[in-house]
Predict the 3D structure of the following.
Amino acid sequence: MTVATASAVNPGLRLNPVLRVAPAAPAEAAAYFRASLVFHADVSDVAAALAADGDPGFVVLDSRSTASWDQGHVPGAVHLPTALIPDQAEQLLDKSVPVVTYCWGPGCNGATRAALALAELGFQVKEMLGGFEYWAREGFAYETWEGEARRAADPLTAPVDAEDCGC
């Protein structure tokens, strides 16, 4: 008997906030999570693909302002602020190469807006979850106007003594 069924049989049984709305059926859940992976990539996967030998098969696009770019950006990223995408994307990017967008971090939807603008122009696009914030917090090297920089990995976002989080 599921929790929802038990609650229906025994109305006195109170459901906790997690189960007040029942989980989706497995097939629906699989479709939802598959779709999420179609639209998103995480920082560690992007970093691993960029660090591997050869062409990663995508280009990384920083959609933030020039001041933000100068403060720090993913090495090798293309800088194209979201507002300039409609006028400049087709000159800077190849539509046959997928684009991975990023902005500041989870509290910013600039990468989402950039991904939308690119998709509307006919580009294949994914959004890098965590943005520049998690790139730096996970200890990956980044470039600033002063040169390369790197922070120690934040133990709340990445394993300190391992190459891989095991996710």
The helical segments are 3-9, 26-39, 43-51, 66-71, 85-92, 110-120, 131-137.
